[in-house]
Amino acid sequence: MIKSDTQPTENVLAKRRIFSGSLFLIAIAQLYFITSIAEGIYPGYSIRTNFISDLGVKPESATLWSSSMFLAGILVIAGSMLLFSEQKKTVEYYTWISFFLTGVGLAGVAMFNENTFHTFHLFFALIAFACGGISALLYSITAKGAFRYISLILGGITLAGIILLIVAFFIPAIDQIVISIGEGFVERSVAIPMGIWFAAFGAYIIGSNDTCG
């Protein structure tokens, strides 16, 4: 059977994966860097008691942090689009959907700050966190080697943290435990593993395809 000229070559696909991985890595790297700066310029900010999204409220940090979060969302969406055409198995297709929705969630968090658009903000934050954790778990099914277990662990931590926050919302006793630990700390136990996984995933697919010419 003659291979169609319209089908991308393996070399082109490898370069596309490298570019996609670079977008994922840059998205998280710039977000973590800008978040650290925003925490420094936010008056009296505490990583233990303040939510991450508080950085998008006060004028000292709002524009900087929200712009970085929006950029992260757009880069994750773009990176997922580059991988879309390669989804061949059902699990890969669902993984791609999770990637895409994670980017949508990140962009939505930036667009709707927690004070003015509280309900929308929570909705997009839940999408970003949940789909980010699900992305890691789904990818662990098809990943090879140690990265399979890294994906499983980081995705599991993220989803466990989400469940804890949801339970705390409905059960006052659990909510008091979360408050005593620090709401900002608990939220970071959800967000940071997810971010680490996306950055690691970007580096992983770059390294898996860096022999292309």
- Give the beta-strand count: 0
* Rough outline: globular
Rg (C-alpha, Å): 18 Å
CATH fold naming: Rhopdopsin 7-helix transmembrane proteins
Beta-strand percent range: under 5%
State the share of residues found in helices, binned by percent: over 70%
Count of domain modules: 1
What is the CATH class name? Mainly Alpha
Beginning-to-end CA distance, first to last residue? 26 Å
> How does the helix and strand content classify structurally?
mainly alpha
Number of helices: 7
What's the CATH architecture?
Up-down Bundle
How is the main sheet built? none
Could you spell the SSE succession in H and E letters?
HHHHHHH
Q: Averaging pLDDT over every residue, what do you get? A: 89
The unreliable regions are none
What would you note in describing this structure?
This protein is mainly alpha-helical. Helix content is about 75%, strand content about 0%. Helix 1 runs antiparallel to helix 2 and helix 5 runs antiparallel to helix 7 (about 185-210). The model has no long low-confidence stretch (mean pLDDT about 90).
